[in-house]
Design brief:
With 640 residues, the chain is α+β, with helices and mostly antiparallel strands. Among the domains are: 2-223, Aminohydrolase, N-terminal nucleophile (Ntn) domain (Glutamine Phosphoribosylpyrophosphate, subunit 1, domain 1), CATH 3.60.20; 248-366 and 495-562, Rossmann fold (3-Layer(aba) Sandwich), CATH 3.40.50.620. The protein starts with a strand and ends in a 7-residue tail after the last helix.
Length: 640
């Protein structure tokens, strides 16, 4: 796990100046938290490639980056891990390749030399990388299948600059960085920047499963991999599906445990992390487990984690307690180090857990991805009621949300009834493929348009066409027309929600602590297997994640663990906005940037409704607190 930065100027333009190279070094150094073990750079007149290394595999200097091929033609700067590097190495050796290191880095580069972009499809792991061909001057950027590792890029007239984090790009003084107001509103709605969107104009995220080829002054984006639920379905029943899954999952866990530094398992007590622990113990009976305990008892899952650890006979199980003091510290740590606004409170949990675990281990196995691949969210249960509400006249559908707000009491508990009902009814009336982003939105389209009245009216249309608030979602979901509702929702979670909400907080929080987190659920073979299963294998009549529950049942997990209520890696932010976070909430209406971007009167109403207990507005208010902290950290970003 590492951090990379690059600056490539087209050959017919000016070379990088000494001052620009100094800026590039500062940009690379700003990523030191991602890789504190080593700094490396490779410089040519029109190209700078910088790297910060976190040593995981082959700790020697022979594996340092940027890494050159044996003939010095190719250069690789890479962030991530290729879990199946041993199998790929063996295959490459049959083709005549020799190796001078024991690293996955050298395997990555030789795989590309052997197979070109096809190599990315063969890889199991998480990665973002830059590859330069000194002979052809072709420059490649690539991101893994479901976007576990980040990569931003800024194309401009003279070339392209890219980095693992936005903070590195903003070290470049030659560029003027301007806030993208459309994307700001999208962030407020979603709590994250989805797809290729970023907070800055003309700065993009490389899409998962894509690579960029830079050649002859052209920047070309290409799709190299996709997995669509419902395509190439397997004809299996539940017992056979469980058997196949067991084999694939144990292999994935075994590959994820390849490390030359100490590792363990992150255990929340939920099914996904419990499965990761159980399969990891099959490989290494001495593996340790690590959990978080919360002083807020209705958000505390440590008892569940303890039950799982005891059932599995874990060698050592450490529980790190988050009390009022540690919560205050971690909230400030999160807000002061934020690189891209992200409104997921689990970011704070993960930051605390990563910092705590770092004292014992450098690599951890997690359960990320189980919900998105195997239908674990409550929204999947809501699919069965869609047709019931669709038959109502549209004007009646539009009143469902406001009626829920009036007749259902607000609550600051995890996923209270009012919060769930309002979110669900935001999807009516709507087209089916636009319903999914509306279900996960912090506000209704009507309310977000009131909060941000300077946006043109047509921006808030739920059409999914270019230039509207859900244009990326519209593009992504277009190919899912004709699929089942379950398949559509699975694809939405995998392509939109998972990369920039779940994976982003996991990557950014762990990397802030120079800590690596791997998820066996997000290996390519598990993804493709999950998407080949019939709906009824994943979603039973009254059973979310049916195949995973059937698997742990086969493993003789206690019934109370198998049938436990889903909690989520959550924090009581709704409550804290009235206590620990209240000072930051009070400052929102005094924030000059926010006053320029939104309606102060409506913002005050959102705050008052939350504090008075009328409506739980924690999501939109927390988003604004996060954005305000980010903007204050990067004053060089102009509003425009």
């Amino acid at each position: 796990m590492c951090g990379l930065f690059g600056w490539f100027k087209f050959e017919n333009n000016n070379e990088l100046s000494d001052e620009e190279i100094n800026q590039a070094r500062l940009a690379t150094s700003s990523l030191k938290h991602r890789g504190p073990d080593d700094f490396g750079e490779w410089i040519k007149p029109n190209l700078y490639m910088g790297h910060q290394r976190l040593k995981i595999l082959d700790l020697s200097q022979k594996a340092a980056q940027p890494f050159l091929s044996s003939d010095n033609r190719y250069v690789l700067s890479y962030n991530g891990e290729i879990y199946n590097f041993i199998e790929l190495r063996e295959e490459l050796e049959t083709q005549g390749f020799t190796f001078r290191t024991d690293s996955d880095t050298e395997v990555f580069l030789n795989a590309f030399i052997a197979w070109g972009p096809e190599a990315f499809i063969k890889m199991e792991g998480m990665f973002a990388a830059a590859i330069h061909d000194t002979k052809t001057s072709e420059h490649y950027l690539v991101r893994d299948h479901l976007g576990q590792k980040p990569l931003y890029y800024h194309p401009y007239d003279d070339g392209i600059a890219y980095a693992s984090e936005l903070r590195a790009l903003m070290e470049l003084k030659n560029f003027k960085w301007e806030l993208d107001k459309d994307n700001f509103v999208r962030f407020l709605m979603a709590s994250y920047y989805g797809g290729d969107k970023s907070p800055l104009k003309n700065v993009y995220k490389l899409l998962p499963g894509h690579f960029i080829k830079v050649k002859d002054n052209e920047v070309e984006l290409k799709l190299y991999w996709d997995s669509i639920p419902g395509d190439q379905l397997l004809g299996v029943e539940i017992e056979e599906a469980v058997t196949q899954f067991e084999t694939l999952f144990e292999r994935a866990c075994k590959m994820c445990m390849r490390s030359d530094v100490p590792y363990g398992v992150l255990l929340s007590g939920g099914i996904d992390s419990s499965m990761s622990l159980r399969s990891s113990l099959q490989v290494n009976p001495n593996v340790d487990a690590f959990s978080v305990g919360m002083s807020e008892k209705d958000y505390d899952e440590s008892d569940k984690a303890r039950q799982v650890a005891n059932h599995l006979g874990v060698h050592r199980h450490k529980i790190f307690e988050m009390n009022e003091e540690t919560v205050t510290i971690e909230i400030e740590n999160f807000l002061s180090n934020i690189d891209e606004p992200n409104g997921d409170p689990a970011f704070i949990n993960m930051l605390f857990l990563s910092e705590s675990c770092k004292k014992d281990i450098t690599v951890a196995i997690s359960g990320d991805g189980g919900d998105e691949l195997f239908a674990g969210y409550i929204t999947f249960a809501g699919l069965k009621f869609v047709r019931l509400f669709e038959v109502l006249p549209r004007f009646i559908q539009s009143y469902l949300g406001p009626l829920a707000e009036i007749f259902i009491p607000s609550s600051d508990t995890y996923l209270g009834l009012q919060l769930k009902a309002i979110a669900y009814f935001q999807g009516f009336p709507s087209s089916r493929i636009m319903r999914y982003p509306l279900w996960l939105s912090t506000l209704s389209l009507k309310d977000i348009s009131k909060l941000c009245p300077k946006q043109p009216k047509e921006f808030f249309e739920a059409s999914g066409v270019n230039g509207t608030i859900f244009d990326y979602e519209g593009t992504i979901m277009e190919k899912m027309k004709g699929k089942t509702l379950t398949q559509q929702l699975l694809y939405f979670y995998q392509k939109v929600f998972l990369p920039e909400f779940i994976c982003l907080h996991t990557d950014r929080a762990s990397m802030q602590a120079s800590f690596e987190i791997r998820s066996p659920f997000l290996t390519r073979s598990i993804i493709e297997f999950a998407n080949s299963l019939p709906d009824n294998i994943k979603l039973g009549k009254n059973n979310l994640k049916r195949i995973l529950k059937a698997t742990v049942d086969r493993w003789s997990f206690p019934t109370k663990i198998v049938n436990q209520k889903k909690q989520g890696f959550a924090l009581p932010v709704a409550r804290w906005l009235k206590t620990e976070l209240k000072p930051r909430l009070d400052k929102l209406t005094q924030d000059e940037t926010l006053n320029e971007l939104m309606d102060k009167k409506f913002l005050n109403q959102l705050i008052a409704d939350h504090l008075d207990g009328k409506k739980n507005n924690y999501r939109i208010l927390f988003n604004l607190i996060v954005f305000s902290a980010w903007k204050n950290k990067f004053p060089q970003v102009r509003i425009g």
